Amino acid sequence: MPVDHYENFPVASLLLPKRLRQPIEAIYRFARSADDIADEGEAEAAERLADLAAYNAQLDRIARGERVEGPIFAPLAQEISEWKLPIQLFRDLLDAFSQDVVKTRYADYAEVLDYCRRSANPVGRLLLHLVDRATPENLERSDAICSALQMANFWQDVAIDWKKDRVYLPQDELARFSVSESQIAAGRCDANWQALMDFQNERTRALMHSGAPLVHALPGRMGWEIRFTVQGGLTILEKTRRVRGDVFRHRPQLGPTDWLRLCGRALMM
């Protein structure tokens, strides 16, 4: 399962074959550091965008076959070359992180999905390239899993994102359920809020399940890694539903007692 900042990017767990841990760590290091540029610290927007543009410039150098240095880009260049990873997927990540700097509201579900297409889906696609399983059907299912993981993270982090002046709940659906942003600010969980969060959870759960058959198309330990990832995301959604969307006072997290349940569910997939 994802670790550290509770992001939805898989990392090189012990479940994975040893030969894949190094390239996955290089991908994770790139994605984590770029995401931190967009999210962490007190830098102004212009500085954040400039730093992300510098990351893009390094990708340009890698694409041209030029030498790059440093703990992030030197290993990444080596893995891109060795595994023939599509550089556009890394550019998509940077595009999403840059968007986070300047865009704080999403008009509708299509806009949220488009953000997920660039912020989360590239990581799943890169994993499929690493195991040589990047077929159209597998890519579609991977996208469903990654987008669902990203949205599960959105729903559990409504309060955290509000402090950054970000609202990933679609604006048209806030209106449909008669929920205002002042209600988010107050952390008020009335019947309208509960209905809105139940709706988001159910749609995200269905999206996750639509991608879940991917686990049967992946070899060995990679399949098990994704089983745990899927079940972890579903568990977060269940916890969010259990508190009726009151993520202001009860932020869903995976605890020690959840892991045995995850093992059992992973075995049943």
Automatic annotation (TrEMBL):
Any keyword Aminoacyl-tRNA synthetase?
A: no
Q: An example of a Gene Ontology BP annotation on this entry?
A: terpenoid biosynthetic process
Q: Which UniProt keywords apply?
A: Transferase
> InterPro entries of this UniProt entry?
HSQ_synthase_HpnC (IPR017827), Isoprenoid_synthase_dom_sf (IPR008949), Squ/phyt_synthse (IPR002060), Trans_IPPS_bact-type (IPR044843), Trans_IPPS_HH (IPR033904)
Among the Pfam families in the record, one is SQS_PSY
Might you give the EC number(s) for this enzyme?
2.5.1.21
Residues in the signal sequence: none
Q: Which domain of life is it from?
A: Bacteria
GO MF annotation list: geranylgeranyl diphosphate synthase activity; squalene synthase [NAD(P)H] activity
Q: Which CDD domains match?
A: Trans_IPPS_HH
Q: Does the keyword Transferase apply?
A: yes
- This protein is called Squalene synthase HpnC
Q: Which organism is it from?
A: Candidatus Proximibacter danicus
Give the gene that encodes this protein. hpnC
